[in-house]
Design a protein that fits this description.
Elements (H helix, E strand, L loop, with lengths): L1 H36 L1 H6 L3 H52 L5 H13 L1 H26 L1
Length: 145
């Protein structure tokens, strides 16, 4: 359904953002290591401002990617929360359109109860896509090590 496609898209984008953040973190840590190992030369040649600018640039890229990752995770969770409501509305509107008459309460309430029972699974599916993709990314990183 549309919800599953949007959940999958969200998780793909979140995975991409997480990969970007991890690469930026590695670059920043390598830069910090270089600064610490050559501290005497940095101080002697007064390169502090140059290294500080480079470090700030790396940190900005890293935090931007992490911010995007967390925004996409939140979007996936919110998408999962709204899917049952959208699904219920579309089913009720479709039934009313096909019947060409107003629906009665004894028709709507069982439908709402059914859709409410499916709500938990629908709420969790976009978030689970993100978690599975993050887990697979972590496994790939461990295999490269």
């Amino acid at each position: 359904s549309i919800g599953m496609l949007l959940g999958n898209w969200t998780s793909l984008k979140a995975k991409s953002s997480e990969q970007t953040a991890l690469i930026a973190s590695e670059e920043r840590l390598l830069l910090v290591r270089d600064i610490l190992t050559s501290m005497e030369a940095v101080k002697a040649l007064t390169w502090e401002d140059k290294f500080l600018t480079s470090l700030e640039t790396c940190r900005t890229r890293e935090t931007k990617a992490y911010r995007r990752y967390h925004q996409l995770r939140a979007m996936g969770a919110n998408l999962g929360r709204c899917l049952p409501v959208v699904g219920a509305c579309s089913v009720i509107m479709g039934a009313a359109f096909l019947e060409k008459r107003p629906l009665r309460a004894e028709e709507i309430y069982p439908l709402l109860a059914l859709l409410q029972g499916m709500r938990d699974a629908l709420c969790m599916s976009p978030t689970q896509f993100v978690y599975v993709r993050s887990f697979l990314l972590s496994l790939q990183r461990l295999q490269r090590s």
